[in-house]
TrEMBL record:
Keywords, sorted A to Z: Membrane, Protein transport, Transport
Main localization of the protein described in the UniProt heading: membrane
Name the UniProt record assigns to this protein: Vacuolar protein sorting-associated protein 35
Localization terms from the record: Membrane
BP terms from Gene Ontology: intracellular protein transport; retrograde transport, endosome to Golgi
Function noted in UniProt: Plays a role in vesicular protein sorting.
Membrane protein topology class: Peripheral membrane protein
Organism in which the protein naturally occurs: Cyclospora cayetanensis
Keyword Signal appears in the UniProt entry: no
GO cellular component terms, semicolon-separated: cytosol; late endosome; retromer, cargo-selective complex
Length: 715
C-alpha cells in the first residue's frame, strides 16, 4: 500500500484490496480463536475474539467510507469479493455477524442495486446461520430510506419481485424439508440458507410491513404475501400435526401453551374502510386446507404464533376491511388456537369500532361478522368452555366490553339506500343468532334501535315514490316489513331479558306512533307493541322494584310520546297501568305509581280527562294515609302529592281547586309536626320550597286564583 502511494498509482481498487486483505486475515484469525479456545483460557480468548470482532467490523466500515466506493464499484467489485470472503469463513457466528455488518455499514443506494446478489448468496451460508435478523434489518433499512426519499427507488428494479422470489424459494425449501418428516420437524435440519418456520413467518411480516409502508394501495402485494404464508402453514403444520400424540389430541391440541401476546395487535387502528363488494373470504378456508380438522392440531411454536399474529395485524392497520377481499386472510386464522382466535376477533372489532367507519356493504359485514364469530359462540377448549379454561368468567369487564363493541358494530352498519340498510340489519341479526342468550341480551337491542331509526326514512321514501318524485323508487322493504322485524326481534328478546324487551317494545311503539303521524295506518301496530309491553310486564317482570321502574317508563312513553292511538285503546292501556300501579307490593310504590299515572289523563291534549286526574290524586291520598299510620317516615308522600296538586292547579285543571290545596297544606303541616321532623330534614326543606312557590304565585300578577290560600303556617 505504501509502495503504491509513493508511485502515485493508488486508487480505490488498491485501497479496497488492501482493506479486503486486512478484513480476510482478521476474519480467519477470529474464527481460529473460536475453534482453538480451551476451557482453561476461555476468558482470555473471549476478550481477544471480541477485540478481533471489532477489528473485522472496522475493516468493513473503512471500505464503506472509501471515496471511490460508488454504487457501481460496490455492485461489480466490492460486494462479490466481500461475500466470497464471508462464505469462505465456514463459521456460523462469523457469517451471521459479517452479513449483518455488510447490511449496516454500506449505503441504502448500494443495497437497492445489489439485492439480487446479496439474497442469492444467502443460499451458500453454513447450516445454522440465522438469516432472519440480517434480512429483517435489510428490509427495515430500505423501508426507512424509501419512505424518506420515494424517488430513490430505481425504476428498473422491482424490489417487491426480488424479495418475493427469494421468500418463495425459502418457502419451497422449507416445505421440501418438512415433507420428508412425520414428527413435526423436518426430515433433515434445514440446509444452509433455509430458514425455519418461525423465521420465515417473521421474514414475511417484515416484507409485509415493507409493502404496506411503500405500496399501501397495492392490495395484490399483500394478497401474494398472505397466500405464501398460507401455503407454508398448510403444508408444514398439517404434516407436523401427525406428530401430535393422542394425549395432546384429548387435551385439545393446545399443548399447554398460553396465548401469545397481543400487544401489537391491540395497537391496530383502521385507516380506511372499503365500501366495495368483496368476493370470497372466510368459507375459502375449507377448500384451501387439505385437512381442516388438522389445523387445530398443529404444533406451531410460540415464536411462529407471534409472527402469525403480526402477519394478520399489519394489513388490518392499513387496509381496514379490504383484507376481506384477500382469500387467504381468513384461512390463516384457522392456524390459531381457540383462545388466540377469540382475542384476535376482539382486537379486530375494537379496531373497527375505534375507527368509526361505516359498514355499508352487506357482503363485507357478513364476512367480517363471520371472521369475528368466536366472540359470538361459546368456544370449547380442552373439553371446557373458553371462560372455564382460562379461569375468566363470561361476565368479566373484558367480556362485557367485547360484547358492547360487537353491539356498536350495528350502529356502524348503515347505508344511504333504505333497502341496503335493512339488509345490513338482517345480516347482523342472522350472525348474532349464533350467540347464546348472554350474547343476544346485548346484541339484539341495537338492532331494534337501528330499525326504529330506519322506519321514518322508509316511510319518506314511500311517500316520495307515491308522489312520483324523479329517481325515487318504492322500497323493496316497506314500513310494515320494518315493523315485522321489530316485532320478531322483541319477541326473541323477551325470553332472554324481559326488562330489555319491555323497553324495546316501548321504543317500537313510539316509532309506530311517529309512523302513524307521517303516513297513517300504523295505529294498530302501535297498539300491538304497547299490548306486548303490557304482557311482558304482567308475565315476565315479577320483582316489585323492577315493576315500579317498568311502570314509570311506560307511563312516560304513553303520556309523552304516543299521540295517534285510538281513544278507546289508549284509555284501555292507561286504565290497566293505573290498576297495576295500585297493586304493587309496597304501599309507597303504589302511591308514587298512581301519582305518575295521573299524567296519562292530562299530558296529551288528545286524551285529557281532568276527572280521572283527580281520581288518581285522591286515591294517592288514601294510600299515603295508610302508609303514615304504619310509619311516620312516609310523611314525604303527602308532600309529593301536594306538589302534584299544585302542578295540576297551575295547569288549570278544573277539578283541582284552591280548597284542595289549602286542605292539603294544612294536612302536610300537621303530619310534619306530628312526625317531629328536624327543620333541616329533606322532607321539611321540600315542604318549605313548595310553600315558597305558592307564596310567589300568590304575590305575582295574575295570581288571583291563589288569593284564597292561607299560607301563614308555622313549621
Amino acid at each position: 500500500m505504501l509502495r503504491c502511494s509513493r508511485e502515485g498509482g493508488s486508487g480505490p481498487e488498491d485501497a479496497f484490496l488492501f482493506l479486503l486483505t486486512n478484513f480476510n486475515e482478521s476474519a480467519r484469525l477470529w474464527v481460529r480463536l473460536q475453534q482453538q479456545s480451551s476451557i482453561r483460557d476461555r476468558v482470555k480468548r473471549e476478550k481477544e475474539r471480541q477485540d478481533l470482532r471489532v477489528l473485522v467490523g472496522s475493516a468493513l466500515v473503512r471500505m464503506a467510507q472509501l471515496e471511490g466506493m460508488t454504487v457501481e464499484f460496490y455492485r461489480t467489485q466490492a460486494l462479490p469479493a466481500i461475500l466470497q470472503q464471508i462464505m469462505a469463513c465456514k463459521d456460523t457466528l462469523a457469517q451471521q455477524y459479517l452479513l449483518d455488518c455488510v447490511v449496516q455499514v454500506f449505503s441504502d443506494e448500494c443495497h437497492l442495486q445489489t439485492l439480487d446478489l446479496l439474497l442469492s448468496q444467502t443460499a451458500n451460508v453454513q447450516r445454522g446461520v440465522a438469516l432472519k435478523p440480517v434480512l429483517v434489518n435489510l428490509l427495515n433499512r430500505i423501508t426507512s430510506f424509501l419512505q424518506g426519499d420515494p424517488e430513490a427507488l430505481p425504476k428498473d428494479i422491482s424490489v417487491f419481485d426480488i424479495f418475493r422470489n427469494f421468500l418463495e424459494s425459502q418457502v419451497d425449501a422449507a416445505i421440501l424439508a418438512y415433507s420428508g418428516g412425520s414428527s413435526g420437524t423436518p426430515a433433515e435440519p434445514p440446509s444452509g440458507g433455509c430458514m425455519d418456520l418461525s423465521s420465515l413467518l417473521a421474514m414475511q411480516v417484515a416484507f409485509l410491513n415493507f409493502c404496506l409502508a411503500l405500496f399501501p394501495s397495492r392490495v395484490d402485494y399483500v394478497a401474494q404475501i398472505l397466500d405464501s404464508a398460507h401455503r407454508l402453514l398448510s403444508m408444514t403444520c398439517q404434516r407436523a400435526s401427525a406428530a401430535v400424540t393422542a394425549a395432546s389430541v384429548a387435551a385439545g391440541g393446545s399443548g399447554g401453551r398460553s396465548p401469545p401476546s397481543l400487544a401489537k395487535l391491540r395497537g391496530s387502528g383502521i385507516a380506511e374502510l372499503s365500501a366495495s363488494t368483496v368476493e370470497g373470504s372466510y368459507m375459502a378456508s375449507a377448500a384451501a386446507v387439505t385437512d381442516p380438522s388438522a389445523v387445530h392440531l398443529k404444533p406451531l411454536p410460540e415464536a411462529g404464533m407471534d409472527a402469525l399474529m403480526d402477519l394478520l395485524a399489519a394489513p388490518l392497520r392499513v387496509l381496514s376491511l379490504q383484507v376481506l377481499s384477500i382469500e387467504s386472510y381468513s384461512p390463516l386464522l384457522d392456524f390459531l388456537d381457540v383462545s388466540t382466535r377469540h382475542q384476535v376477533a376482539s382486537t379486530m372489532v375494537s379496531a373497527v369500532v375505534t375507527a368509526g367507519m361505516p359498514l355499508s356493504s352487506a357482503e363485507s359485514l357478513g364476512r367480517f361478522l363471520t371472521l369475528v364469530s368466536p366472540l359470538l359462540r361459546d368456544e370449547v377448549l380442552n373439553g371446557k368452555r373458553l371462560e372455564e379454561e382460562t379461569g375468566e368468567p363470561e361476565e368479566t369487564e373484558a367480556a362485557k366490553r367485547q360484547l358492547q363493541q360487537m353491539a356498536m358494530l350495528v350502529h356502524l352498519a348503515r347505508a344511504p339506500d333504505t333497502d341496503d340498510y335493512f339488509n345490513l340489519l338482517l345480516v347482523a341479526k342472522s350472525k348474532f343468532s349464533e350467540g347464546g342468550p348472554s350474547k343476544l341480551r346485548v346484541l339484539l337491542p341495537p338492532l331494534v334501535v337501528s330499525a326504529c331509526r330506519l322506519l321514518p326514512s322508509v316511510l319518506e321514501r314511500q311517500q316520495q315514490a307515491e308522489q312520483r318524485i324523479e329517481d325515487v323508487t318504492m322500497p323493496a322493504h316497506g314500513g310494515k316489513k320494518i315493523c315485522q322485524f321489530l316485532h320478531a326481534t322483541c319477541l326473541e328478546l323477551v325470553q332472554i331479558s324481559a326488562e330489555m324487551a319491555f323497553r324495546m317494545w316501548l321504543m317500537a311503539a313510539m316509532a309506530a306512533d311517529n309512523a302513524c303521524e307521517m303516513v297513517g295506518g300504523y295505529e294498530a301496530i302501535c297498539h300491538e307493541f304497547l299490548s306486548q309491553a303490557l304482557v311482558c310486564f304482567e308475565e315476565e317482570i315479577t320483582e316489585s322494584k323492577r315493576q315500579f321502574a317498568a311502570l314509570t317508563e311506560m307511563v312516560g312513553c304513553l303520556s309523552g310520546f304516543v299521540r295517534r292511538l285510538d281513544r278507546e285503546n289508549y284509555d284501555s292501556i292507561a286504565s290497566k297501568l293505573t290498576q297495576h300501579g295500585a297493586k304493587l307490593l309496597k304501599k309507597p310504590d303504589q302511591c308514587r305509581a298512581v301519582l305518575s299515572c295521573s299524567h296519562l289523563y292530562w299530558n296529551a291534549p288528545e286524551y285529557r280527562d281532568s276527572r280521572r286526574v283527580l281520581e288518581c290524586l285522591q286515591k294517592c291520598l288514601k294510600i299515603a294515609d295508610i302508609c303514615v299510620q304504619a310509619s311516620t317516615s312516609h310523611v314525604s308522600l303527602f308532600i309529593e302529592i301536594l306538589d302534584k296538586y299544585v302542578y295540576y292547579f297551575d295547569q288549570n285543571n278544573p277539578e283541582v281547586t284552591v280548597e284542595f290545596i289549602q286542605n292539603l297544606v294544612a294536612l302536610c303541616a300537621e303530619h310534619c309536626r306530628f312526625a317531629e321532623l328536624d327543620k333541616e330534614d329533606d322532607v321539611m326543606k321540600n315542604f318549605r320550597n313548595t310553600l315558597q312557590h305558592l307564596k310567589r304565585k300568590k304575590q305575582a300578577e295574575g295570581g288571583s286564583k291563589y288569593r284564597g290560600l292561607d299560607l301563614s303556617i308555622d313549621i
